[in-house]
Amino acid sequence: MNQHDHGMKVRREVLGDAHVDRATAEATDLTSDFQRFITEYAWGGIWTRPGLDRRSRSIVTLTALIARGHDEELAMHLRAALRNGLTRDEVKEVLLQTAVYCGVPDANTAFRIAQEVFAQEVFAQEAPGDE
């Protein structure tokens, strides 16, 4: 399996097929090289390294996204963190930790986003039909 294929496999496992399908379907001449780049470099080159498990990588990713104020990406990676096995209580602890090191306003925003994501996840689990 080449780096792109391996990256796509991990990207799908972490972010879910629906997100990856949407991102790749929306690729244009402008964004297709970027999609290939993040699939090969981030997902195939970094997320596949043996030094950290996916739970740990999710914790690092959440912290970095909060610190940089990347709220749209934060919502996506909160869902990924749950998919990677973090519990809601563990996510809460990560967010509390970021209040000290990233700042209270950033953690406040992260808690708001997490509450929205958690509510969406509960709704999705309760909704009948196929995923």
From TrEMBL:
Its EC number is 4.1.1.44. It is an enzyme of class 4 (lyase). One of its GO terms (molecular function) is peroxiredoxin activity. Residues 33-116 form the Carboxymuconolactone decarboxylase-like domain. Keywords: Lyase. Pfam families: CMD (PF02627). It comes from the Bacteria. This is 4-carboxymuconolactone decarboxylase. It comes from Nocardioides immobilis.
